[in-house]
Amino acid sequence: MPHISHKGLELPQSAIRKLVPFADAAKERGVHVYHLNIGQPDIETPAGALEALSVKAHEMAKNHGVLEYSHSAGIPSARRALCNYYHRHGIDVTPNQIIITTGGSEALQMAFTVCLNPGDEIIIPEPYYTNYNTFASLCGAKIVTVPSDIKTGFALPPMDEFEKYITPYTRAIMICNPNNPTGYLYTHEELLKVAGLVKKYDLFLFADEVYREFCYDGNKHFSVMQLEGLERNTILFDSVSKRYSACGARVGCLVTRNSEVYATAMRLAQARLSPPSFGQFFTEAAVDTPQDYFNKVQKEYVARRNVIVEGVNKIPGCFCPMPKGAFYTVIDLPVEDSDHFCQWLLTDFSYNGATVMLAPATGFYVNPELGRHQARITYCLNINDLKAAMKCLEEALKVYPGRLPVAKKAAAKKPAAKKKAPAKKK
Amino acid sequence: MPHISHKGLELPQSAIRKLVPFADAAKERGVHVYHLNIGQPDIETPAGALEALSVKAHEMAKNHGVLEYSHSAGIPSARRALCNYYHRHGIDVTPNQIIITTGGSEALQMAFTVCLNPGDEIIIPEPYYTNYNTFASLCGAKIVTVPSDIKTGFALPPMDEFEKYITPYTRAIMICNPNNPTGYLYTHEELLKVAGLVKKYDLFLFADEVYREFCYDGNKHFSVMQLEGLERNTILFDSVSKRYSACGARVGCLVTRNSEVYATAMRLAQARLSPPSFGQFFTEAAVDTPQDYFNKVQKEYVARRNVIVEGVNKIPGCFCPMPKGAFYTVIDLPVEDSDHFCQWLLTDFSYNGATVMLAPATGFYVNPELGRHQARITYCLNINDLKAAMKCLEEALKVYPGRLPVAKKAAAKKPAAKKKAPAKKK
């Protein structure tokens, strides 16, 4: 048979999905699995936006309508609605600076294609969202990571650390804010530092802000689109579907004031004809969702986060920072190997007929060793389930054979913390 | 500012869109433009499928539902529904041989990425659907064309013509059936010949069959999926949204029995998380649209096609073959330069306050010279508009300054017809 392409063979396998067969087997055995591994919110999709789509489809059916291709950049009124949304968040952009995409994923893919040559490097603080790998790999670009530290809650590493990684191939810095997988919310000051570096080396600044609405404890989100003097450098990826707990709608957007990037991305947009119209009908109504919806959602996520942070930190040898955004956190575990532990939870453990599924953090690092004692937790379940899941985790660590004694764990962590940038670059 | 990528700079501009600003200007002047240039059907979207989506969205709103990510390959019940559809068309596939995509475009992009290395060649009969260029360009592959001839209605060129173009870099043969832009419907015999070549050289066979339901005059569609012994070679691209006149729904699929291609495409599918759910809800209902819907649609398109074929052929110096499928045809025009003529129609001509917009065929050939005297016509307007458009074309050719005398035109065509394969390959 004809061969698969080299790019095809190199496509990374999703780290988050590796354990799915073990979870399925656990369920087959009758064990309940608390899914703390996936970012699928259980929050209600705004009924008003669903109803608006329902009415639109009904009217089209009644009036013998035709569901035509939309504009390749998205329905103009939907783009105007997004502009209004951004304006309310202190971001001033025009409809001709927005391309509506099939989820944030397509926005990422477009921007990487438009901006990156084979061999180009994107600097990202790690741990980072693994799916960036696939889109980088598709254009032959390389993700270069600057380690952030769980002890600081995964704050932005110092700029001189970033600078160590800059080479003639560096083309972009990428920031996910609030962060998946760490839940860290970058401050205005941190973003100003990134801006300085972007200007100094004339780089692209890619920003994934799909969790913009999920900021806690009174903290405000500051967008890269609010950074001055970076109009030609900055490209924003956003997701309407993630924001309004409508992941299946697959509506996102690429936003940039760089007219050359925009025009080039439009050629890609035209080649794929148009973004999905049903999702755009949903979007037009969704962006008018009252603020009260997010107030409730934020309150709920804060309560959930607190269950996780408290639950993890009271387990001897575990540590969970206090994330300020998104619905993720990366925790420290007193285990030799988090991949083994997370698999063992599904294959060998249950407590009161249940177990817990975590995402080993190894998949969120370029160098898996850095995540060897960590796991990502998502808090997309209700409070009671999260409490039960924390109890499972606590009981599991009492009996897990690969558990590290606290002293030994600290020793085991040292090499990773000591790792020097120059060695990493080889 | 940081530079656009080489790939970005090389992205082809859509040939069909080049004239849009001239059409807009004509409309500004109050001239009515008959759009024979775009494949946006005016046929009613099946009301039952729209209504099913409407009900689903309404129930979700009423029940505080969550629109979750679907399976990355598509909702299992939607894939089963597609299997039933294919079974009714003599194509037996399983849900695990289908990946639901965002329109046929994403299916194309996935398959090209999975199968083609930089420098690889795809052989396609020309004229061909221009957007293939973008997806080939994205993976550094090259489209190599075998000219088909308007005199045969653009039938499959002889296999020894194809064979002249096969090199060590040839990785695939691609067939669009029924064809966009020619409307040609490949016969069972022609496809068997292609199959022989695909087997002989162990190539991929890419087939774009999005117009499967649009076959006329009692002709039956024969799918590449019905070719025996090519299970590991064949990849089908399909479009639910195009089939059911719901272009904006953006639902297509990739179908293959090659498990390695499927598994690799699934990695891409997982990286972009899932296809749009609303469109999939529509799809599940749409595939149950009664056959009567297509009978009516076919009857309508046959009537429209006949208006075009008769209208064009009665204009001195023009020629239109008799297409058997899709809603396109490529016609011969007695003009020096169809790009100039199509632009002139918009900038300098009107008849009874109207003009006609055609797609110059130069954009459908690798060597634009081959399309210099041709244009693509789509018949997506109602009969009366099509008749008025034909009258416009007739009147325009009476006064167009770049019109060729019939004898001269025949001479001008000769060099193109004589062009030899070896010269082309340089």
How would you characterize this protein structure?
- Chain A is 42% helix and 14% strand.
- Chain A is an alpha/beta fold and 426 residues long.
- The first copy, chain A, has 2 domains: 6-44 and 292-419, Aspartate Aminotransferase, domain 1; 47-286, Aspartate Aminotransferase, domain 2 (3-Layer(aba) Sandwich), CATH 3.40.640.
- In chain A, helix 8 (188-201) links the parallel strand 5 and strand 6.
- Chain A is globular, with a radius of gyration of 22 Å.
- Chains A and B meet through helix 1, helix 3, helix 5, helix 6 and helix 10 of A and helix 1, helix 3, helix 5, helix 6 and helix 10 of B.
Could you outline the blueprint of secondary structure elements for this entry?
The structure is a homodimer of 426-residue chains.
Chain A: H1 6-10, H2 20-28, E1 32-35, H3 47-62, H4 76-88, E2 98-101, H5 103-115, E3 121-126, H6 132-138, E4 142-147, H7 159-164, E5 170-176, H8 188-201, E6 204-208, E7 234-239, H9 240-243, E8 252-256, H10 259-271, H11 277-286, H12 291-313, E9 328-332, H13 338-347, E10 354-357, E11 359-360, E12 374-378, H14 383-399, H15 406-418, H16 421-424
Parallel strand pairs in A: 1-10, 3-4, 3-5, 5-6, 6-7
Antiparallel strand pairs in A: 2-8, 7-8, 9-12, 11-12
Helix pairs in contact in A: 3-11, 4-11, 5-6, 5-10, 12-14
